[in-house]
Amino acid sequence: MGRWSKEISLLLFLLVPALSLGAFFGHFSFFLLLVTSYLLIRQTLYVDELEKWLSRGAYGDKNQHKGIWRDIYYHVLKIRKIDKKRKKKLTRMIDRFRTSTDALPDAAVVLGSFGEIDWTNKAAREVLGLKKSDKGYRIDNLVRNPLFILFLKSNDYAQKISIPSPVNENMILQISIVPYGANLRLLLAQDITHLKNIERMRTDFVVNVSHELRTPLTVIKGYLETLQGMENLPPVYFRSFQNMSTQALRMQALIDDLLLLARLETKAKKSDCVNITELLKQICRESDLLETNERRVELTLETDVRLRGDEEELRSGFTNLLVNALKYSPADKPVKVRWYKSEGSNANLEVEDFGEGISSTDIPRITERFYRAEVKRNRKINGTGLGLAIVKHVLVRHEAKLEIESQLGRGSRFRCVFPLSRQCL
Ligand code: ADP
Q1: Of the candidates 314, 324, 318, 310, the residue with the CA atom closest to the CA atom of residue 350
Q2: By alpha-carbon position, which residue is closest to atom 13 of ligand 1?
Q3: How far is the CA of 109 from the centre of ligand 1 (A)?
Q4: Fold of the 104-191 domain
Q5: 132: which of 4, 164, 202, 364 lies 20 to 30 Å off by Cα?
Q6: Straight-line distance from the first to the last Cα atom of the chain, in angstroms, rounded to the nearest whole number
């Protein structure tokens, strides 16, 4: 009430003489109107003054008023002070953020809904060749790598891509995009040249060692064949040579698989239109011929869709799946191969067997190099532990997924899922 005392006393100060004059002249309404008009004009002038003051940014001390108007000016000034403090704090925070992001070794770019650059850190300007003045320009007009442009437009940022830096083609950048907020995207670029070099050295090492092992192995195999062919060979020697031959063959298979994997890591990708029905017919016929109990493989072709990719790589991948199904299931059980399209327009290759199956703990690991669930079992089946690693690599190179369903004692189903983008239409 105290805040209004000035206004109330003014009202009383005007109302008492107005009412007395009204009584004296017999014109109450006239004098009341006079008082009301005065008060209205006075308040309007104060409001106008306040509006002008606010429009100037509420600068200058305007606190010469009294009563409720003094309070109004006081509150506005208080809010302005708090706001000023907040702004200072925010500026300090932004400065700190800028300094820390500029110190980041990874490049960071904030992109708007059309891919326009909103903000870049120091590393982004260095490794992506962007300038501060590029703000507002679309990044795909400045970083012209086709893979990068496709990735940006795809709106599927689950994967990362590797591209050479636009300012130094010897530098390899791994690009990832994180969508956030209202249509904003944070682009991160990490220099992975060092990692790529180590990876290349590893692949080169495997390729060189494998090549070097090939020649001595061929010589050993040759001698073993000669020795095994000798007449009157004591049984104990014969068995030893046979074991040595088996191990030499296993070593040969290992070297071949290692070389194939190294090739899959380094070879340029092909994009031919591969006739999958013909390929499957060939693979199934060849695998069936190797079986003692022929006609184990049951091929069902429900679609003739063809795939864009590398025929030899697909042949290796599919053959590995079929060979495994035959290897890890009894000779009297069928192996079903099915090529079909599913509802989501994916093309699927399914290889199903009714063998020993794989335990749920082994399933996530069997595509790792050299992982063999088999070694834990009693029955020993030959293998390199590289077959499914090859399958996985081939599928990744064809943007496909490997799905594995299995139950111990019942059998397994391996499904290769190829997206629509990989099908020749
Ligand atoms: P390997 O040369 O040992 O067959 P793979 O990489 O092809 O190597 O397979 C890895 C492991 O996965 C195998 O050792 C085996 O234990 C298991 N496996 C693969 N396919 C099947 C299958 N169809 N049924 C049961 N186990 C399988």
Answers
A1: 318
A2: 372
A3: 44
A4: Beta-Lactamase (3.30.450)
A5: 164
A6: 82
